[in-house]
From TrEMBL, chain A:
Alphabetized SMART domains for the sequence: BSD
Top-level taxon in the UniProt lineage: Eukaryota
Protein known as: BSD domain-containing protein
Subcellular location: Nucleus
Gene3D superfamilies linked to this entry: 6.10.140.1200, BSD domain
Organism, scientific name: Hibiscus sabdariffa
Similarity section: Belongs to the TFB1 family.
Region (Disordered), start-end ranges: 441-462
Residue intervals of the BSD domain: 200-254, 279-331
Keywords associated with the record: Nucleus, Repeat, Transcription, Transcription regulation
Cross-referenced Pfam families: BSD (PF03909), PH_TFIIH (PF08567)
Automatic annotation (TrEMBL), chain B:
UniProt keyword annotations, A-Z: DNA damage, DNA repair, Metal-binding, Nucleus, Transcription, Transcription regulation, Zinc, Zinc-finger
Protein's cellular compartments: Nucleus
Quaternary structure note: Component of the 7-subunit TFIIH core complex composed of XPB, XPD, TFB1/GTF2H1, GTF2H2/P44, TFB4/GTF2H3, TFB2/GTF2H4 and TFB5/GTF2H5, which is active in NER. The core complex associates with the 3-subunit CDK-activating kinase (CAK) module composed of CYCH1/cyclin H1, CDKD and MAT1/At4g30820 to form the 10-subunit holoenzyme (holo-TFIIH) active in transcription.
InterPro entries assigned to the protein according to its UniProt record, in alphabetical order: TFIIH_Tfb4/GTF2H3, vWFA_dom_sf
Source domain of life: Eukaryota
Chief site of localization: nucleus
Family: Belongs to the TFB4 family.
Protein's name according to its UniProt entry: General transcription and DNA repair factor IIH subunit TFB4
Its biological purpose: Component of the general transcription and DNA repair factor IIH (TFIIH) core complex, which is involved in general and transcription-coupled nucleotide excision repair (NER) of damaged DNA and, when complexed to CAK, in RNA transcription by RNA polymerase II. In NER, TFIIH acts by opening DNA around the lesion to allow the excision of the damaged oligonucleotide and its replacement by a new DNA fragment. In transcription, TFIIH has an essential role in transcription initiation.
Length: 684, 296
C-alpha cells in the first residue's frame, strides 16, 4: 500500500508518482490519498488482471499502459502515470522497509527508511540498536544501485560529500525503484535554482517561457545568480524589480531561442520499441507528441484514420492499441496472421494495409513532373504498392499478387519513407500538448500545401518555398549591419576650438587653473625667445649640461620614488590593485561592489517617493545598504597587513557612494516628517 | 587605421616624435630659461640617437599660432649647417626653430587680455600621429614609434574634444604618449593622454636636472619598458571640458547617445541632435548625471 503526497496547490504544475503494482498472482489495490483536479477525472477500476487508467493527455510526457490482446505470455500488469514535478511539495515523502548496512558485508539492521525532501531518516526496528541515521539531502552527492536482472539483492547506495556511503537493502526491486526515483528527483531539484512564486508586484503575469528564460540566464551567469540569491531570496528586492533593469538580457536570450529550425531526427523515432519487463510482464509504449507527429507525417493513412475515427468511433487509446497491434503484426512478418486479423477487425485493417495516400501522392508527383526536364521523380518512386520496388526478378513480368502481399511491408520501404519526410522538413513548427492538436495542425498544413501545389509548378510561392528551404540560416555569415555614419549636427560647432563664446566665458570660468599673465606684448615675447636661440647658437651648450650634484640628487629621488611606488602600487601603470590581492578578497570586493551598484540603482530610481510601495522599497534598500558596512569592515580585517592600505583605498569610494545614498535618505525622511503635518491625506 | 606595429629590425629601435613647446608667453614667465631648456633637450636627442644606430628623432614645434616640423634625424638636409661650436644636427634644428618662430610671430594677431595662453598642443599631436601613420604604411620594417610631449603651457579647455579624439586614435594604433610637464600647474590632458595610451607622465621637481629626468625616464624604448620600472603617478586627473562652453568641469550632464558632456541641462544635444526628454525629476531625466571623481 502506498500513500501518495497530498497536493495543496492546484495552480502549479505537478509531478506525482503514482505507482500501482499488480501482478497476476497477488492483486494489490493502490489507493490514491489525494485527489487533485486531474486525479478526479481518473477512474480506477480495480480488477485483478487488467487495469484501465484514463488520464488526461495534457501533460507533456505521459506513458500509457493498456492491455493488448496478446498471447498469454505478454500481459500488462502494471500501470503508471508520470508527470514532471515543478513545484516542491513539503510533505512529499517515501517510506519503505529496509535494512541499513554500513558496509557490504554487514548483515544490516532492519528498520524503516523514510525519505522526505530535506532528509533521510532511518529508524531501526529494534529501538536499542545503534543504526539510527538522519542525513540531510544536502550532503548526498549521488546514488548507486544493484541491477534488477542480476542475482544480487536490491541494494541502494547513497554517497555523500565526504565519500562515505549509506547502503540500504530493500525487500524487492520495486521499492528500490521508488526510492531511487525519489532520490533522483531530489538531487536534480537541488541543482536547480529555486523559484519563488512572484506575488509581490501586483500586475505581473509570468508565463512558463518567461520563467524558463530567467532560469536559463541565472544558470549561465553565476554572478547574476549570486546577486539574485542575495537580494531576491532575502526579500530586499522583488523579482519584478530585479528583472526590470535587465530587459535587454532577457530579450537577447529570447531571440537566441528562435534562431534555428529543428528538423526531424534521422533516427526512426516512429518505429518505437516498447520496453518490456520480463519479470512483471509489462509492455510500455512511450508516446510523445513528437513521435505522434512523425507517425502522422510518415503514414498519412494513419493520420486520416485518426482524424476520422477519433473521437467518434473509438477512443484515442483504442486507436493506438490497434495501431500498435498492427505494428506488432508487421514485426512478426506473419502476413497470414495479419490477413486473418484484418479480416476480423476493419479498423485494424486500415493500419495493416498499404498506405494508399502515399501511393496516390507519389503518382501525383510523377504526373506533375516533366520527365524530360526534371529527374525528381520517376516510376520507381511509386514503390509502396509494388513488391520488390517494381524490379522484376528473372525477367518475369508477371506479378503474382497474393492476397497477403497486401499486408507485407519491408523495412526498406519504411526507411525510405522516413528519409523522405525528414528531408521535407517540418511542416508544423510548434510545440503541442496533445495528439488532437498535432493531427489537426498537420492536416491544416497539408491542405495548404496541396492548395499551393495545384497551381503552376513554377509559381512564385513554390519558388519562394524552395529558396527558403535551401537556405540554411546557420551556415550563412552573420550580416554585419553597416556602421552608422558619423552624424554631427553642427561640425563647426563641434570641431572649431577657437570660438567667440569660449573667449567670452573662459576668462572668468576657470577657477582652478592659473592663467599666464603676460604683461609683455607679442613682439617682445617672440624677440626674447629668438634671443635665447641665438645665444645658444653662438655660445654653444652650457658646460656641463647638468651639474653632477643635481643629477645625482635627481637620480636618487627618482629611484626612491620608483621603489616606493612599486612596493605600494605595482609594477606597471595599467596593472590594477585588485590583481595583487588574494583571489578570495578580490572576488568578495567585486561582488560587494556589484551588489552596491544594484542597490543604488534601485534606490536612486525610487526617488521621488510618490507611493507607499516605493516608500517600503526604499526602506528595505536602506536596510540592505546598512548591512554592507560590516561586510566591508570584515573584509578589511581579513586581509593581510601589507594590503590593508590598498583595500581601504578601494573601499573608500564604496563608502562614499553608500554614505551619499543614506544621507539623501535621511534628509528626505526629515523633510517628510516636517512636512507630514501639512499633508492631510495621511501619506506615510 | 593601421594595425599594431609589425616586427621591427630589432626590438629596441625607436622612433621618438618630440612635441616641443615654444609658446613664447610661457617661456617668458618660466623659471627655466629657454636656452637652458634647449641645451638639455638637444643633448637628450643626441643621447637617443646614440642608443641605437637606427633610432630616429622627429621634432615638431608647438607654437602659439601654428605648428611645424623642425627636425628629422633621418633626413639628409642636416649637413648644410656647419657650426664649429656644436654638432651639426643641433645647429640645423636651431636654425629651423628660428625660422619657425619668425613665421609664428607673423601669424599672430592682437588677442584680448585674459585669454589662456595655451599652445597649439592639439595641432602638433595631430601632426605627430599623421607622421607615425605614414611610417606604419611605409613597409614591413619600421621602428617602434612613440610620442614625447615636452609641455609647459597650461591646457586650453577648448581643445578638449579634439585632444581626446587624438588620444583615442593614438590608443587605437598603440602609440604611447609620454609627457613631461615643466609648467607650474598640473595638466589634466597630458595625464589622461599618458594614462590612456600606456605612456609615462612625469612632472620634474628640479628643473635644473631636466636632462637627468629625460635620460632616466624618457629615453627607455618600448621593449625595455617591460622590465625597467618607471615612476608611476599616484593618480590621474580625469576632468573634462564641457562641449558647450569649453569650461573645465567635473560634474555635468552626458548625452546618452553620443556621450557629449554639457555643463547645463539642454533640450537638445548639439552634437548628435537627439532631443532629451522632459526633466521630470532629478532621477528621471533622460540625460544622466555623471560624476567624475579623481582616482585616489
Amino acid at each position: 500500500m502506498l500513500r501518495l503526497p497530498t497536493s495543496t496547490d492546484p495552480s502549479c504544475l505537478k509531478e506525482m508518482l503514482l505507482v500501482c503494482k499488480l501482478s497476476r498472482s497477488s492483486p494489490n489495490r493502490a489507493q490514491i490519498g489525494a485527489m487533485d483536479m486531474a486525479a478526479k477525472r481518473r477512474r480506477l477500476i480495480p480488477s485483478s488482471l487488467r487495469w484501465l487508467l484514463t488520464v488526461p493527455i495534457s501533460s507533456r510526457d505521459c506513458r500509457l499502459f493498456f492491455p493488448l490482446r496478446l498471447p498469454a505470455t505478454l500481459q500488462i500488469s502494471l500501470l503508471s502515470v508520470h508527470y514532471n514535478i515543478h513545484q516542491t511539495m513539503a510533505s512529499a515523502r517515501v517510506a519503505k522497509i529496509a535494512k541499513y548496512k554500513t558496509t557490504i558485508k554487514d548483515p544490516g539492521t532492519p528498520g524503516t527508511l523514510t525519505m522526505t525532501l530535506e532528509k533521510i531518516l532511518f529508524v531501526p526496528r529494534n529501538p536499542k540498536s545503534a543504526g539510527k541515521l538522519d542525513v540531510e539531502f544536502r550532503y548526498i552527492k549521488g546514488q548507486k544501485h544493484t541491477k534488477e536482472g542480476s542475482n544480487k539483492p536490491p541494494w541502494l547506495n547513497l554517497t555523500n560529500n565526504q565519500n562515505g556511503s549509506f547502503i540500504f537493502e530493500f525487500e524487492n526491486y520495486s521499492d528500490l525503484q521508488d526510492c531511487r526515483d525519489f532520490v533522483g528527483k531530489v538531487l536534480a531539484k537541488s541543482g536547480e535554482v529555486s523559484e519563488k512564486p512572484t506575488a509581490a508586484y501586483p500586475d505581473e503575469q509570468l508565463n512558463a517561457a518567461e520563467m524558463e528564460l530567467r532560469i536559463k540566464l541565472l544558470q549561465d551567469d553565476s554572478e547574476l545568480q549570486k546577486l539574485h540569491k542575495q537580494f531576491v531570496l532575502s526579500d530586499v528586492l522583488t523579482e519584478a524589480e530585479f528583472w526590470a533593469t535587465r530587459k535587454k538580457l532577457l530579450d537577447r536570450e529570447a531571440s537566441k531561442k528562435i534562431k534555428q529550425r529543428l528538423g526531424f531526427k534521422s533516427a526512426m523515432v516512429s518505429d518505437i520499441k516498447p520496453s518490456t519487463d520480463g519479470r512483471t510482464n509489462k509492455v510500455t509504449f512511450n508516446l510523445t507528441p513528437e513521435i505522434i507527429l512523425q507517425i502522422f507525417a510518415e503514414k498519412p493513412a494513419v493520420h486520416r484514420a485518426f482524424l476520422s475515427y477519433v473521437p467518434n468511433k473509438m477512443s484515442e487509446r483504442n486507436f493506438w492499441t490497434k495501431y500498435f497491434r498492427a505494428e506488432y503484426l508487421h514485426s512478426t512478418k506473419n502476413s497470414i496472421a495479419a490477413a486473418a486479423e484484418a479480416a476480423e477487425d476493419e479498423e485494424l485493417a486500415v493500419f495493416l494495409k498499404h498506405d494508399d495516400i502515399l501511393a496516390s501522392e507519389a503518382r501525383r508527383k510523377i504526373r506533375r513532373v516533366d520527365p524530360t526536364l526534371d529527374m525528381e521523380a520517376d516510376e520507381g518512386d511509386d514503390y509502396t504498392h509494388l513488391p520488390d520496388h517494381g524490379i522484376f526478378r528473372d525477367g518475369n513480368k508477371e506479378m503474382t499478387e497474393l492476397q497477403n502481399e497486401l499486408y507485407k511491408r519491408t523495412l526498406s520501404q519504411d526507411i525510405n519513407r522516413h528519409a523522405a519526410v525528414v528531408l521535407e522538413g517540418r511542416a508544423v513548427d510548434a510545440e503541442f500538448e496533445d495528439t488532437k492538436a498535432v493531427a489537426e495542425a498537420l492536416a491544416h498544413s497539408k491542405r495548404e500545401s496541396s492548395n499551393k501545389g495545384e497551381s503552376d509548378g513554377n509559381s512564385p510561392e513554390r519558388l519562394d518555398r524552395l529558396s527558403r528551404m535551401t537556405e540554411i540560416e546557420d551556415l550563412q555569415g552573420s550580416n554585419n549591419l553597416p556602421l552608422a555614419p558619423l552624424c554631427i549636427k553642427d561640425p563647426r560647432d563641434y570641431f572649431d576650438s577657437q570660438q567667440a563664446n569660449a573667449l567670452r566665458t573662459s576668462g572668468d570660468a576657470l577657477s582652478g587653473t592659473e592663467q599666464i599673465k603676460c604683461s609683455l606684448s607679442i613682439p617682445e615675447v617672440y624677440g626674447s625667445l629668438r634671443e635665447s636661440i641665438s645665444s645658444i647658437k653662438t655660445m654653444g651648450w652650457k658646460e656641463p649640461i647638468v651639474k653632477p650634484e643635481v643629477a645625482h640628487q635627481v637620480f636618487d629621488a627618482l629611484t626612491n620614488s620608483i621603489s616606493n611606488t612599486k612596493h605600494n602600487i605595482g609594477k606597471n601603470p595599467q596593472e590594477s590593485v585588485l590583481d595583487r590581492l588574494p583571489r578570495k578578497t578580490k572576488e568578495e570586493l567585486l561582488h560587494i561592489w556589484t551588489s552596491i551598484l544594484e542597490l543604488l540603482k534601485h534606490f536612486w530610481a525610487s526617488y521621488p517617493i510618490t507611493t507607499s510601495y516605493l516608500y517600503a522599497k526604499v526602506n528595505r534598500l536602506k536596510d540592505a545598504m546598512s548591512n554592507i558596512y560590516p561586510q566591508l569592515e570584515e573584509i578589511k580585517g581579513s586581509v593581510p597587513s601589507e594590503f590593508r592600505h590598498q583595500v581601504s583605498l578601494l573601499v573608500r569610494p564604496m563608502h562614499q557612494a553608500l554614505d551619499a545614498a543614506i544621507q539623501h535618505y535621511e534628509a528626505s525622511m526629515q523633510k517628510r516628517s516636517t512636512q507630514s503635518g501639512e499633508k492631510p491625506n495621511g501619506y506615510v | 587605421m593601421a594595425s599594431a606595429p609589425s616586427k621591427l629590425y630589432a626590438d629596441d629601435v625607436s622612433l621618438v616624435v618630440v612635441l616641443l613647446d615654444t609658446n613664447p608667453f610661457f617661456w617668458s614667465s618660466s623659471s627655466l630659461s629657454f636656452s637652458q631648456f634647449l641645451s638639455h633637450v638637444l643633448a637628450f636627442f643626441n643621447a637617443i640617437l646614440t642608443l641605437n644606430q637606427l633610432n630616429q628623432v622627429v621634432v615638431i614645434a608647438t607654437g602659439y599660432n601654428s605648428c611645424d616640423y623642425i627636425f628629422d634625424s633621418a633626413s639628409d638636409l642636416n649637413r648644410s649647417f656647419e657650426n664649429g661650436r656644436m654638432p651639426v644636427m643641433s645647429s640645423s634644428l636651431l636654425q629651423k626653430l628660428e625660422e619657425f618662430l619668425i613665421k609664428d610671430e607673423q601669424l599672430s594677431k592682437e588677442e584680448p587680455e585674459g585669454r589662456i595662453k595655451s599652445s597649439l598642443f592639439l595641432g602638433s599631436l595631430s601632426m605627430a600621429l599623421c607622421y607615425i601613420q605614414r611610417v606604419f604604411r611605409s613597409g614591413a620594417l619600421h621602428p617602434h614609434p612613440r610620442i614625447l610631449c615636452l609641455q609647459g603651457s597650461p591646457d586650453g579647455p577648448e581643445q578638449y574634444v579634439a585632444i581626446m579624439n587624438a588620444i583615442f586614435s593614438a590608443q587605437r594604433s598603440e602609440v604611447p604618449i609620454d609627457s613631461c610637464y615643466i609648467g607650474a600647474q598640473n595638466s589634466a590632458f597630458l595625464q589622461q593622454a599618458s594614462y590612456i595610451t600606456g605612456g609615462v607622465h612625469h612632472k620634474p621637481q628640479n628643473l635644473d636636472g631636466l636632462f637627468q629626468y629625460l635620460m632616466t625616464i624618457f629615453a627607455t624604448d618600448l621593449h625595455s619598458r617591460s622590465f625597467i620600472h618607471l615612476p608611476k603617478p599616484v593618480g590621474v586627473d580625469f576632468r573634462a571640458s564641457c562641449f558647450c562652453h569649453k569650461n573645465t568641469i567635473d560634474m555635468g550632464y552626458v548625452c546618452s547617445v553620443c556621450l557629449s558632456i554639457f555643463c547645463k541641462h539642454h533640450k537638445k544635444c548639439s552634437t548628435c541632435g537627439s532631443v532629451f526628454g522632459q526633466a521630470q525629476s532629478e532621477a528621471a531625466s533622460a540625460s544622466d548625471k555623471k560624476r567624475k571623481t579623481p582616482e585616489t
